[in-house]
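does this look right to u?? NAP version
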Amino acid sequence: MPPFRRVALIGLGLIGSSIARAVRARMPGVALAGHDRDADVCETVRRLGLVDEVAETAAAAARGADLVVLAVPLGAMRAVGEAVREALAPGAVLTDVGSSKQAVIDALGDLVPAGVHFVPGHPVAGTERSGPEAGFASLFEGRWCILTPPDGTDPEVLGRLEAFWTGLGARVERMDARHHDLVLAITSHLPHLIAYSIVGTASDLEEVTKAEVIKYSAGGFRDFTRIAASDPTMWRDVFLMNRDAVLEMLARFSEDLAALQRAIRWGDGETLYRRFEASRAIRRAIVDAGQDTPAPDFGRSH
Ligand code: NAP
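got this back:
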């Protein structure tokens, strides 16, 4: 028995469409409704047959659903919450996939009608692409989905939401929302900020031409450009809505960067070697944990 009978997806981009594909592939019999504010996205989802019904409004999609998943940028969560609230039936579960959790709780907490269960979530899986054509059914396989249930969440409801995510191939962890935001600030948000920053710096250089930056990018730069090609709306919202945690991690990062700068200035090879060696161990641990491939060049096909 699937944990939910009818799932409504609000936002049908990379994450929403990947959930739709994974539900289709792994939970036959579950009815899928969807809505996106972008008419072209709705048309694409219809053409690809990703859901049973593409609704004209978020409320129409949510009506009758026992699970409603908000898969829109963080800055749109409140508006979407306002749009669906009148359609949420008592007993329904409302969740989201936003990359920052306390901000979503702040945005939606007071909107949730009595009798509706609100359990925020975040699948830690994605790519630098966006839109429904970028989605794929195996996106969540072997990846973690972090749920941040408020105190007092009904364990039966939590169990069903966990079963939903494990049914899509994910592994589930429960966490306090603020802790989630700190962890993701260092594992996801700061790396994106650094990538956006370094790509911007390189393209602003005058003594090195843009053509050279692109021509010799295989030296390392191109790996930053993959991350820095991520959706600007999504990432603007992440930095606006996980501000405190990102600033805290950024302060630590700046101190560590200054230490490396000092080691370079003073010719302190021992410090540099020690730091770089420790980084290799982290890479090996990520591969051992099944979160990346050990294949040369990250398994990229050429
Ligand atoms: P996406 O591919 O850009 O899709 C988001 C879709 O939501 C777009 O089609 C967007 O339309 C639509 N939308 C925006 N406001 C809306 C509204 N008020 N009502 C209905 N639809 C609306 O983005 P995504 O990558 O799927 O990200 C969605 C959420 O997942 C974000 O909260 C993000 O933080 C989270 N997330 C992303 C990743 C990742 O790697 N991408 C990973 C984990 C979690 P417009 O284009 O017209 O705005």
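Residues 64 and 120 are 20 Å apart (CA to CA). idk if thats expected tbh
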